[in-house]
Amino acid sequence: MSEARAYGAQSQASNLAPLTIDRREPRPDDVAIDILYCGVCHTDIHFAQNDWGVTEYPVVPGHEIIGRVSETGSEVTQFKAGDIVGVGCMVDSCRGCEACERGLEQYCRSGMTPTYNGHDPHDGSTTYGGYSEAVVVSQRFVVRVPEKLDTAAAAPLLCAGITTYSPLVHYGVKPGHKVGVVGMGGLGHMGIKFARALGAEVTVFTRSESKVAEATSQGAHHVVISSDDDQMANIAGQLDYVLDTVPVPHDVNPYLNALTFDGIHILVGLLDAVDPELQGANLVGNRRVLAGSLIGGMPETQEMMDFCADNDITCDIEMLDINNINHAYERIKQSDIKYRFVIDMHSLKQ
After folding, report:
1. Domains recognised in the chain with CATH numbers
2. Beta strands 134-138 and 2-8, pairing class
3. CB of 258 closer than 8 Å to CB of 239
4. Which of 60, 89, 181, 194 has its CA 20 to 30 A from that of 163?
């Protein structure tokens, strides 16, 4: 074991504050990483504040990790000291079930091991995330960061990026398709970029007139004010896909109505009940599909990183001193960020 400095929450009522955690010595297949940057996801807030009632304290959040390899285990073949690498939302799985064998570790039949607030399947120790100076992870759950990518702006790709890339590729978005994106936050703006890069015509749905120019600047071809009945009537039956990034309960029926027959509405943000209730006729009448998608497997995450490098895609970020993390949480809850905070881990060492 070695000690590492970190930031975490000691209880549901406490702010994030400095603490010391243990990191294991590298196993034969492990990569030890000095963390350079870590993105801040809204999920981090949910766990730090126990919004979902499953947090085990102390908790060290952070699952959008970019760092430099400092050491490798004896069996590591994919990385060497000095490589710039990334770690996302999971750090292990059973590695033997059908999902894992297909490179879909996020759907591991035994349950993936999350980067934080999880338990290592080998020794039972608690997993701690990227708000720390170092991490040790099996090479299977590490991706290479292409040299062309800005290292700081690449951090949110490990969550916001793969969460939106995976369903668009899985469901076959290609040139000529029409894709709607619901939500203009960290996920939504990445969905616009990926859909455009895949050749689709992109329509953004927003409730606010003030977001029209913002959506257009991100690459949207069209913007629909979802609170305007006339605009929603005009888009009815026009889209092949809707990528729904909204994380809170909302009415999906109007967006289903925007799909053509065989259209697919993909939920990537909502984990709660669909409310108001779903109208079955919106599915049955046009053979539409309401689907969901969770991050992506490790092969696809590497594919996404390479795709971003090839297409000059990164996340729009604001750099953050870790000492300001609690204030950043408040800004995120108020949607006062365009579109992702990234912690400079040098500030932790200071």
Report:
1. 2-159+316-349 (3.90.180.10), 161-292 (3.40.50.720)
2. unpaired
3. yes
4. 60
